[in-house]
Model the fold of this input.
Amino acid sequence: MDLTDRSRHMSGEPVSLPNGLTEETVKQVLHAARSAWPQVVIADQAFLDFLAEKIPRDGDRSAELSNLHTSDLYLACGCLLGDPQAVAAVERQYLSQLGASSLASGAGSGFMEELKQALRERVFVARHGEPARIASYSGRGPLGGWLRMVAARLAVDLRKKQRGEVPSSDAESLAVPIADLELQYLKERYRAEFEAAIQSAFRELPARERALLRLHSVDGVAPSSIATMYQVSPRTVQRWIAAAHAAIKARVRHALATKFALTEAELDSLLGLVISQLSVTLQDL
Done:
């Protein structure tokens, strides 16, 4: 049974192929998608219409198609159509894994359940006359990564709501890379402890290093000017500053690792913020 015959058998009508795609290409896409998600059954035409919207209209559409995660798009299409097996597959494959991600660091079970429920509502439920958010999944990256991005944005917003702050808009959330959102979540989650650790590490520095960092990070004095003050070379001042930064990072790492069950990757991500946060933190001392 060829594609047209099988589709007619399913829906009563022959399929209309997206412009620029051959029947053989579409066959391969459908076969791969149904092999990946055999429990999800949606009409060929419904999926092809959904898929066609994700392929740029200009250029070689077959080449563009090869850049898409078409099997993930098939699952997303099933969710958009309200197929219970597709929704169950997302729950089983992706939402159940959130508890093992960085989003769960330091969060109680109540927070994660609230996050999962917020994610379900954001992704699967149509709002204000607009289709469910799953419709905006482009297929350019894995569906799991896209869901993690939305979850990270929601996690940040949940933390903000707990503090009485205004959450970000959907447009802002979808414009931020996944790694940045997860880092933002970690920063929001450990903000007070993070700033306290930086302040404590700064206070433990020798007097000269504290003065150097105030001049350089808070007052914005150039190393060459600091070198004149201390009657040393600018390179020496740069070494002093680098050593002070390293000492602060080491102390912050130890403080956070001792207090929280953070992974090495999460610690490294937070430590990458130490120097950029330093001038703001030192202004409070």
Summary: The radius of gyration is 26 Å. The chain has three domains: 3-89, 94-189, 191-282. The longest helix spans residues 234-259. Residues 3-89 form one domain.
